[in-house]
UniProtKB/TrEMBL annotation:
Organism: Phytophthora rubi
Transmembrane segments: 32-51, 63-84, 96-120, 140-164
Protein's name in the database: Uncharacterized protein
Keywords: Membrane, Transmembrane, Transmembrane helix
Lineage: Eukaryota, Sar, Stramenopiles, Oomycota, Peronosporomycetes
Length: 265
């Protein structure tokens, strides 16, 4: 791309390369990963009951991280089913799954979950549920209670992400069209990028483009053919192997702008 990577773009590049699934993952692969994440989530919640002090704070951070991974994987599964229209998929991804707000939601979630968990344990509704607990079983009722806690935690993280994304777009772009405008790069990448970058967009002449730094942070590279034509390509991520020349061409670079079409195998 002919541009260097600053710290922010470098962090995004690392996250994109450490995505949970490979580019050729099937629905079965994603479901199995989702099961493992849910198992880790439930383990974190049960360990929170047994630990106190500094260890519990580490456990809350782990819980937030697992929640974030689970939400991202669930959205990836929905993307792979093609149930969502393109505009709806892009809107949700830009609002809830952008790098500018994802970390903030995890940090605030980890910081406030302990207070929220304590308030639930001390609430009248929780104390009055002892009769139900005795009627069923401690294990079943604990799963129900932990499920309610997870739903509240997810709602809080998503609310923080959405609010911060809205504020960021208003501050950086002064227009709401960033959430709804189509971009040829997003169309070509589809579900192949882990999340999106709101700060990587540029609104020019009523069209939405990506900055070169943002394209490079997603792992896109510029390839020049023998006849001088410049192409954009992306390295495919595999489960266990790292081929040297496994690139996929997604578009052509003309006049510092990318005209991106469908994926070419």
């Amino acid at each position: 791309m002919g541009v260097g990577l600053r710290r922010k773009e470098a962090v995004v590049f690392v996250h994109e390369q450490l995505r949970l699934t490979a580019h050729d993952a099937t629905k079965l692969h994603r479901v199995l990963l989702l099961y493992l994440l849910i198992e880790g989530l439930m383990s974190d919640i049960f360990l929170l009951v047994a630990n106190n002090g500094f260890v519990s704070k580490i456990q809350y951070v782990s819980l937030s991280y697992n929640l974030s991974g689970m939400l991202l994987l669930v959205f990836e599964i929905i993307e792979s089913t093609y149930w969502l229209r393109k505009k709806t998929r892009v809107f949700i991804k830009r609002l809830l799954f952008c790098y500018e707000s994802s970390l903030l939601g995890e940090i605030l979630g980890a910081a406030l979950q302990q207070t929220f968990f304590t308030q639930i344990n001390r609430s009248r509704m929780f104390k009055s549920s002892n009769n139900i607990n005795q009627a069923v079983s401690h294990y079943v009722w604990s799963i129900v209670g932990h499920g309610i806690f997870v739903l509240f935690a997810i709602a809080f993280i998503m609310s923080v992400r959405a609010l911060w994304a809205i504020l960021y777009v208003r501050w950086a772009h002064q227009t709401w069209v960033i959430f709804s405008a189509s971009c040829c790069v997003d169309t070509a990448l589809g579900r192949r990028n882990k999340m999106t970058m709101l700060g990587g967009y540029r609104w020019i002449d009523d069209k939405l483009y990506y900055k070169p730094e943002a394209l490079k942070s997603f792992g896109l590279v510029k390839v020049e053919k023998e006849d001088g034509v410049e192409l954009m390509a992306l390295r495919k991520l595999h489960w266990f192997s790292v081929p040297k020349n496994d690139f996929v061409v997604i578009g052509e670079v003309t006049k510092l702008r990318a005209s991106v079409g469908a994926w070419y195998e």
